[in-house]
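## retry 2 of 3
previous attempt timed out at serialization; input unchanged, resubmitting
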Amino acid sequence: MEIFKLHTIETAPGDSKAILEDTLNQMKFIPNLYATMAGSPQVLKAYVEMARLFGETSFNAVEKNIVWLTVSRSNSCHYCTAIHSMVAKMYNVPDEIVEAIRSDKPLSDNKLESLRKFTSVLVEKRGWASDQEINNFLAAGYIKTQILELIVGIAQKTISNYVNHIADTPLDEPVKSFEWHAEN
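## retry succeeded, writing output
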């Protein structure tokens, strides 16, 4: 039974149409995530705005991709883990980083591993990081501001992860080769 509709520009509520049009122009397709979120313009707008804000943080492209993948994997989101595996490739994130995160293995780079580990801690412990976990993150070369910025990335991905869990969003055709499923 389909509970959530995959909207098109034509079927979307009025306040979602412009975002879907912009997405189509930029990406040449409307991801099923956006098509699902379009049913609530507020959710779609919140997600797009949080993505923009996380894009403005001090994390570099590789680090942002590590956050997106780690959150998606930690939340067992089949859709976002697949799509962010594809996005990581577009940003030239090394395959070994993507595969390590997808299989929940440590990264060989100590600083990036600290980011992966701290992101997982924040997701899994719902933000209740210990002083030691915070200090380990800072000792790896990150700064206090980045702890706050990381929360924006986690919040952004949590919105999409939860939507995908509830809607069982199907993978888009361009993403199918990056399919991923959580171990049971």
